[in-house]
Structures are given as structure tokens and as C-alpha cells.
Amino acid sequence: MQYLFVISGVFSALFSLLLISKKKKGIQHWFLGIMFLLITVNCFYVFNLYSQEQFYYVAFFSELNYAIPLLYGTLLWFYSKAVTLEDFRFSKKDYLHFIPFVIFFLILISPLITNINLIKSDHIGFPLIKLVITPCYLFAVLVLLSKYRMRLKDKFSFDHKIKLLWLNWITVGAVVLWLLATVGYLYNHFNINHKTLLSDYYVLSFLALYLFILAFVAFKYTDIFHKKREEETPTKFPDKDEEIELENKTIFKNEDLDNLLDVMNSKKPYLDPLLSINKLSEATHLPQYKISKILNTSLNQNFYDFINTYRVNEVKKRLEEGEADNYSILGIASDCGFNSKASFNRVFKKITGITPTEYLKSLSN
């Protein structure tokens, strides 16, 4: 089992090194790099615990390793905020999130400093505090990602799978690791005769596999380790409350709605598979917040549904004109602005209630 600790430690160390040594890095790279560095420290510490017949205790360092898991949820939370929020800045009040770690660490080292044991080392509160605080942050991250997905649909007409794929891998992996650690702790706690800490084996087995897959996803699908391409569409957003306040203050005229619909029908911007609200704003000469206001109040749609409704109607029109005799349905969908088969089939069925193939058959009948 010792090799699992080494493999996990090496993978996380390489991750940390690549992130921290990145030339043009943002604060999100620091959060993720520090998190992987702490995982490295944990892995090699536990490796030392398992590989020797008699454990070599190092004052303060051993206590630090026991407290480190309290930081994982916090760092993941800040990383997610830094990735998804354009105006995120680490402020003084954000240090409050590290208070549980500091207090926990001080309790652990209190016998070394004052010779006073505030809490016995075998007290159930020690592992429980880690098992309780971490899921609070994981839940907060899941809520943040859910809101992020919704906001993507307010800004873009296509699916942003790459950044979501990366964030999902990070978050789901953290949730699974927490579940394994929790189940393992409960198993060992209620099985007095079982002292081999089998949970460590499963946690480290998953961690080794998880980090390997994470490395593949990071290098193949994301720009986390290399320079971002200039043509990529930004997917960070300003604070949502500010946007809502601006929209609430916005008053639009019927001419604005007519202008928007006229551009959609005459210029057909929805045929652009990478159409964003920013591009539509330039085409209509309407501010983004005004377009959002029109869609939300007059049409009761978000930007994603608004654009894809036009695309579906365009597909239906071309199918009715018989283009399916010369082109595949997917080829027609691609010409109408859809950039993936999965999103096309999902959106088409959501809007029409039937699949594209079923719709084509209904035309024949």
C-alpha cells in the first residue's frame, strides 16, 4: 500500500510545481497549487507512518499534518470563486475562513507549548471537525457551480464544457474523497478490533487514480498549465448582485425589443455557433444588460434558450424545405449554429417535445 502514497504524492507534487512555477498565473493557480502541495505533504507523511515499524514523531509537523485536511475545502472554495468570478479579490475578511484551521492547530500543539492538554488526543471531536467543516465548503462549491452554469446560459448560446469539465472533476473528486474518508473513519470507529486503517488504502487508491485522470483532463482539455488562447471566450463574470441591480434600474422601450427581433430575423446572428451576448450587443447596438432585461421580462427566456429557439426553428424550416434529402440532420444543425450533436438533440427535444428524427418522420407522414 505504501506505493499508493508515493504515487499520489508524486502526482500532486508535479501538479503543485507546474501551477506555482507558471509564468503568467492568477490567484486561482496559487489556491490550487497550495492545495496540491498540502496533499503532497500529507501523502509523504502517511507514507512515513506506514513504511516504518516504529513511527518517527516530529513535533509540530505531525500536528500540522493532522490539521491540513481542514484547508482542502476552504482552498477549493476560493479556487472556484477565483475561476468563476471576474472581480474576485482576496480580501482581509477572507482570512476568517482559515480560523477553524488555526484554532484546531493551536489545540493540537497546546501540549507542546503549555504542557496543558485542552482536549485528549483520542477525543471524537478531532476527526469530526474535519468531517463536518469540509462538506460545508463542498456544498458551497456545488452551489457556486450551479449558479455558474445558469449564468453561462445568460451570456452564451453554446455549452462551455471545458471549464465546467475541469471544475466538475475537481469538485466531484473532492466529494468522493470526503465520502471515502468519512465511511472509513466510521468503520474503524465502530470496529474496535480493526486497527489497520483500511480507509487509508481506499482513499489513497482513489486519490492516485483521480490525480492521474485529473492530469489527463488538465493537459488535454484545459489551459490551466499553458497560455490561454486569445480567441477563447472569457467565462468569468462580474458580481451577480450588481448585474441584477443594473437590470432592475434599466427601462427599455418597445423599439429596443423590435430592434432585437429585427436583427435576429434579418442578420441571423444565431447561425454563429460561438454567439455570445457580447456579440449580439455589438450587432444590435444594445447594452448587454438591456438585452438581458428584454429577454427576462418580455420573452421570459435566458440568452441560451432565446438563441437556440431560433436555431431549432431554422432547422425545422430547412427540414420542411427538403434539405434532408441532400444533407444529414446533423449537417443541417451545424449550419444552423449548433456545435455538438448532444446539445442539438437535447435542445431540439426540449423545445419541440420530439427528437429531430421523429420530427423528420412526421413531415414524411
Structural class: mainly alpha
CATH class of the largest domain: Mainly Alpha
Q: Which blocks of ≥5 consecutive residues have pLDDT under 50?
A: 226-235
Rg, nearest Å: 26 Å
Number of DSSP-assigned strands: 0
Q: Count of helices?
A: 16
Mean pLDDT: 80
Order of helices and strands: HHHHHHHHHHHHHHHH
CATH topology of the largest domain: Rhopdopsin 7-helix transmembrane proteins
CATH architecture title of the largest domain? Up-down Bundle
User: Main beta sheet, described?
Assistant: none
Q: Percent range for helical residues?
A: over 70%
Summed up, the domain count is: 2
Shape call = elongated
Beta-strand residue fraction: under 5%
In whole angstroms, the N-to-C terminal distance is 64 Å
Short synopsis of the structure:
The chain has helices at 2-20, 27-51, 61-67, 69-84, 99-114, 125-155, 161-190, 198-221, 240-249, 254-266, 277-284, 288-299, 303-320, 329-335, 341-352, 356-364.
Structure description:
- The protein folds into two domains: 1-221, Up-down Bundle (Rhopdopsin 7-helix transmembrane proteins); 240-364, Homeodomain-like (Arc Repressor Mutant, subunit A, Orthogonal Bundle), CATH 1.10.10.60.
- Helix content is 70%, strand content 0%.
- It has helices spanning 2-20, 27-51, 61-67, 69-84, 99-114, 125-155, 161-190, 198-221, 240-249, 254-266, 277-284, 288-299, 303-320, 329-335, 341-352, 356-364.
- It is elongated, with a radius of gyration of 26 Å.
